[in-house]
Amino acid sequence: MTPDDLMGFMVEVFPQVHKDFNVEAVTEDGVRMRLYVTEANLRPGGTVSGPSMFALADVAIYLATLSRIGPEALAVTTNGSIDFMRKPSANTDLIAEARLLKLGKTLSVGDVLIYSEGVDAPVARATLTYSIPPKRG
Amino acid sequence: MTPDDLMGFMVEVFPQVHKDFNVEAVTEDGVRMRLYVTEANLRPGGTVSGPSMFALADVAIYLATLSRIGPEALAVTTNGSIDFMRKPSANTDLIAEARLLKLGKTLSVGDVLIYSEGVDAPVARATLTYSIPPKRG
Amino acid sequence: MTPDDLMGFMVEVFPQVHKDFNVEAVTEDGVRMRLYVTEANLRPGGTVSGPSMFALADVAIYLATLSRIGPEALAVTTNGSIDFMRKPSANTDLIAEARLLKLGKTLSVGDVLIYSEGVDAPVARATLTYSIPPKRG
Amino acid sequence: MTPDDLMGFMVEVFPQVHKDFNVEAVTEDGVRMRLYVTEANLRPGGTVSGPSMFALADVAIYLATLSRIGPEALAVTTNGSIDFMRKPSANTDLIAEARLLKLGKTLSVGDVLIYSEGVDAPVARATLTYSIPPKRG
Lengths: 137, 137, 137, 137
Known about the structure:
Four copies of one chain form a homotetramer. Chain A has helices at 3-13, 50-69, and strands at residues 21-26, 30-35, 42-43, 47-48, 76-84, 94-103, 107-116, 124-131. By secondary structure, chain A is an alpha+beta fold. The mean pLDDT of chain A is 93. The interface between C and D is medium-sized, with 29 and 30 residues. β5 (76-84) of chain C pairs antiparallel with β5 (76-84) of chain D.
């Protein structure tokens, strides 16, 4: 699936949240995603909220998986871990670099580095596992 | 801090999100929090989104910490892990039972079980670590 | 399976490590396990090594699972997270209180609190997921 | 610190375990470590035990941190997460590629990919956080 395919799928199945994100690229081993940072994502001290970064990591591994297996709305996250390492820059979009580490028949596992756009050191890292439903015959 | 104190603090420092949550009780070792489940939290298949559950776990440990140390807006999450174990019930609020496992000078650690209200088996579990800023003299 | 059944199974399938552990009890929702702390587990500063605590948590959820489904040597860990919260007491065994949070056909999930024997505050917490192989017909 | 410096430090402070490991290289952003796989690490089905892989990841981030800050025996792990993704090859050493993602004054965070030597797809991934003690004056 191309970035346009993935965004079209987002619009269809995630009408509540697709406007927060953009698929920047499908990369060799995953995807690059953008979170448009707005007032809604900010927290005291001007930082981006943890759940916003978790959401970015979650959708990035979801779409990285779908970019390989095709549209499968019912893949669900079974597990995630996240480390918040640095304070994001104020008023700056976040960029997630997601890579798939495993893509099996029933599970995919990927990790993500999240950056404030234009800054070298990552602000967060995360790992997500997705359960892929069996194909209907 | 009482449930009313904690909700007043939420209104003040989290104007974007306080309406999604309610502090049901301050318990012996933590807090009980409610996530009002609305269309915005739902995902394909009628399930509540993973990031919504992460957000509930995150705010529950935050407020469990503050219920012991007083209002400290600048406490920040440094790490989290979450397991999604069962599909939440449709159109049912989520209840988080958060307990503090450690409350030190610089870190608090707590874990959370999340339930669909009225259902015995938990839908998710999470652990969060918060960094507590040093007191200004 | 009783504690004696579980230890008999350990002797058979984990000949390398069974002597390090004891099943103290099969509890309502899991098991209680002991790690015999010896010189081999210690690290600089007199603390018990992190991998020793991970091993204790891992075997505790494994045996909690088997205590419900019967001997199944090929269950494998798929995921774990652990928080080291306090320094264990010197020269004191560790006790793990493991509880199962989910026991499905293909996955079990449990969490563990680890204590220095006789001390109230936990030294570590962990969560483990096990994959249960399908029954052979 | 060079690989020889790091192994010399291991011999001194981890007399119980240094023989299980070798520092293969100090890399641009971390270290490469080897776990000598022996009978003691094996589990039913011929797989390497999860705790052995956790131990490899743990020591790799520890030494990656020390390779930058110098010998500091009292750095302690505060948190870890690990995903076991594929079955390791039988009778094959494991190689960990560890990279530091953050090296602050009080915390270091790194992640690790673990491979069966000579096989392209990783068998496990892990993330570890270390707490670095303050310098004595």
